[in-house]
Amino acid sequence: MNDEEKTPGRPLKDCVAVVTGASRGAGRGIAIELGAAGATVYVTGRSTRERPADTYGQLLALSDMATVPGSIDDTADEVSRMGGRGIAVRCDHTKEEEVSALFARVEREAGRIDLLVNNAWGGHETFTGVFEAPFWEHPLSNWDSMFDRGVRNHLLASRCAAPLMVRAKKGLIVTTTFWDRGHYMRGSLFYDLAKASMTRLAFGMAQDLKPHGVASVAVSPGWMRTEFVLAGHKTDEAHWQQRPELSRTESPRYVGRAIAALAGDPMVMDRSGEVLRVGDLAREYSFTDIDGRQVPPFEM
């Protein structure tokens, strides 16, 4: 985005963004922060107020929750309240026809897409409560949820967004991942493989997109206080500081501020292909989390 197009306090006022998997967690935090920067945000996912996603039964039971928290409608309303324009679009990102229809709608209504944030993730659907175990003890269903309903989701959305960006000769694709300098995420081989694949996906797409002026990066948040993390520790956002074990956590809006900073950086092409940690970006772009802390990068 050109400097002359920016408005103080609303640097992304002319940005059209799609954030996938934005009913809750990182996706919600990202969408809200893009809204705070003035962006128009298409908020996508499967959970609506009237019809929450119905594939989280196992995780809900582990978290002692009756219903899945959040919806695309709630997130879109918050985007608008923060000063952007939130548009909720129900989309199952595992279904190619629904993803294609989403981007056709964005093109029809907005004429372009400037930013795609790939965040839709199916890994929670098969979580058994056990994270650290040798690979032969993890259920094979984790592969299906993390790859067929995780990595594949990111590729599907990128395939639809890329032609629009290539035509405009500008744009940014952000893939949310987890990365700790190549260290193995001990105890969960499937998770390690899936996140490494997402990181490599962002790198590979960057190579194909670079000649067209389109950037692709992977962004790695730390340990986020998502709705499920807070429920698992029997607390909420207002009281998490009473739990010492959560002292290294960050809010989902911290990664949102990182992505808003990248989207507003006219030199973002120089970062294309990189995997970027939110804590590092906070120092580079001088932003903090919602509680005023500059949380360092999470390390294993």
From TrEMBL:
<dbReference type="InterPro" id="IPR002347">
    <property type="entry name" value="SDR_fam"/>
</dbReference>
<dbReference type="Pfam" id="PF13561">
    <property type="entry name" value="adh_short_C2"/>
</dbReference>
<protein>
    <submittedName>
        <fullName>NAD(P)-dependent dehydrogenase (Short-subunit alcohol dehydrogenase family)</fullName>
    </submittedName>
</protein>
<dbReference type="InterPro" id="IPR036291">
    <property type="entry name" value="NAD(P)-bd_dom_sf"/>
</dbReference>
